[in-house]
């Protein structure tokens, strides 16, 4: 080791002692080694090494979660006959939501932010710093929810877990915002790749949803993380756990009309799905019940749906595999519909109800207290819709209907419209089915569904509330950087104030003894009444012949705008642009004056952040 590297290692050991002195963290030996490597390797080399480590860790987390849920689900669904399964469908979905809520309240102190929006929130509002608790909390919560029959998916919890792993790795080695965001995305990418055994889909997920403005040199850590996650999934998981579909047909361009119609139908269904999702959330949030009582009501509703329609139990991937094989009879015979004898109409009615109620089952699961995501539900609903469409076409006497291909295409289409992620959907289904010759139909249905979704709402309705509140921004790199700035960092809390009824002479003394160029005029309760700048005061300050006003109230001015502490940096900058001001007063929730905020400070910090990210 040369002298230069020895000095760096000594520096780190000193940092270790200082860090431990404050009791923040126990620094382990492997961390010393990795920190030493970070000083020996170039930036790109260390990021590739980081991508491998984050990818393997996130991949193992995904394997663990999928294995846990599969074992629980397998025992519940396959080890008992239908008559006994009714009992399980009544009890276990209810227990899943209630137990998850109890775990959140007792272990995680009520903190249950979940879904892809949670990752975007951390990127935009918390400089990509994710709590270390999320490295395991999502696994525990979603395993209980989905394993016991919650009608949701594991992919979003796996993505959040991977993102937390990547973020905490970057925090451990004190990497900057750019690298922290990149490794956060690498962890999420590895999680998705592990869940679906689809590395390209994991990479597309990171680029479409999490990252904007990543340079090509930073593409490699995402690739290696996704590959590591996918390889571990393929090596460690059993074949029946993997998200794979082998039954498909060769693409025939004569079947394009089928895909065009399915794309349109999927676009409408995706819109229905997200509307049910958001409306159910608002409906549940209206109730003033305790969280535990909401969980009990939601669990009871979910149990009832699972009794009536068993495919709503859990993720539903086993049902999808049966549909791609063209075998709906084994699905129906385990439900009350097995006692009906309506021919093909039994299948049509059954699948139509499954499609309609899947959106309700998923939203009830997630918003009443369970943990999961909409990845799996959108794929399940899309595959069911595709099979339903194929059955209806056959009912009308059409021949050579590509049933298994329509199931796969429906999965991609609905996922594209629900998640607003067409590339992720296309590559996910192509990789999972090894159906690369299906790229054309997958692109047709996914693009149609996505364009229809964007026509109904330019922003994903699931994320829209946070976008409107200024918590996240989903499609512009510059705005995401600005959102990472925090308002309190730019407020001058030492701003000078003066009472509105004070004489002007008191203001002169304030100017004489202070160094501010702008003053806040407040009442006795410190509520803002107006503002004064040096330009406003100068005529009275230097003109000895001017008649002085009796008090400050006679010369103060109404500010062009007042900034609220809850506003985002983007909204504040827009206010600055609209008012052409460079300083604006800030008020709290009680309209009391807090301080002045400077536009130049925000822009300077933004330029520094942009320089760090470039």
Automatic annotation (TrEMBL):
It is a multi-pass membrane protein. Keywords: CBS domain, Chloride, Chloride channel, Ion channel, Ion transport, Membrane, Transmembrane, Transmembrane helix, Transport. GO terms for cellular component: chloride channel complex. CDD domains: CBS_pair_SF (cd02205), Voltage_gated_ClC (cd00400). One of its GO terms (molecular function) is chloride channel activity. It is found in: Membrane. It comes from the Bacteria. Residues 491-548, 556-613 form the CBS domain. InterPro entries: CBS_dom (IPR000644), CBS_dom_sf (IPR046342), Cl-channel_core (IPR014743), ClC (IPR001807), ClC-type_chloride_channel (IPR050368). Pfam families: CBS (PF00571), Voltage_CLC (PF00654). The chain crosses the membrane at residues 46-66, 86-108, 182-207, 219-237, 258-275, 295-313, 345-368, 374-393, 405-430, 436-456. Its main location: membrane. This is Chloride channel protein, CIC family.
